[in-house]
Design goal:
Layout lengths: L1 H29 L6 H24 L6 H14 L12 H29 L7 H30 L12
């Protein structure tokens, strides 16, 4: 029962991580020439690394990755691109804002899995508490960076400034 529930939980987070890698890479690519391009590229790479780490943890616990969950996360990210943004043929600043907000929420979810696995680590010798703490710290740093970008985008989009809003303003 314990391992079944943990397996479901980890696979749900694997689906979320698959979604997160897709959106993080897309945001990083869209803004590769912006002031925050390097930060976005770093965060995207870290999110991809965290997904690999999750797969390794699942393997060490004997939890198989469920392909349908992986495909579901992948499909959800692709479908999320269809969200209307108020502009017909190009990205709007609102697209960037919503993507940053979505990514930040995903990283918040990632902190929850690392926290949960820290609790599980007391009964599972396969889990490295030091590694989990490092992953949790890195996720918190990602949240701080994404929040700063989100607030900058919010100011650019929702303020009454006369400056034109561009889609590369994270």
């Amino acid at each position: 029962m314990y391992s079944d529930k943990l397996g479901i939980y980890l696979n749900d987070h694997l689906a979320g991580a698959t979604f997160g890698v897709g959106i993080a890479r897309r945001i990083a690519h869209q803004h590769r020439h912006s002031v925050r391009g390097a930060d976005l590229a770093r965060i995207a790479e870290e999110i991809a690394q965290d997904r690999v780490t999750l797969l390794q943890i699942m393997d060490s616990l004997g939890v198989p990755a469920r392909r349908y969950k992986i495909y579901g996360g992948w499909a959800a990210e692709r479908l999320g691109r269809l969200k209307p943004n108020g502009v017909l043929y190009r990205r709007s600043g609102l697209s960037t804002f919503v993507e940053l907000e979505t990514l930040r929420l995903g990283v918040e979810g990632k902190t929850l899995i690392w926290r949960t696995l820290l609790v599980v680590a007391s009964a599972a010798a396969q889990l490295d508490e030091s590694q989990l703490r490092s992953l949790l710290d890195r996720a918190r740093e990602q949240i701080d960076s994404l929040e700063a970008m989100r607030l900058t985008a919010a100011a650019a989009i929702f303020s009454d400034r006369s400056a034109p809003v561009t889609s590369d303003s994270p």
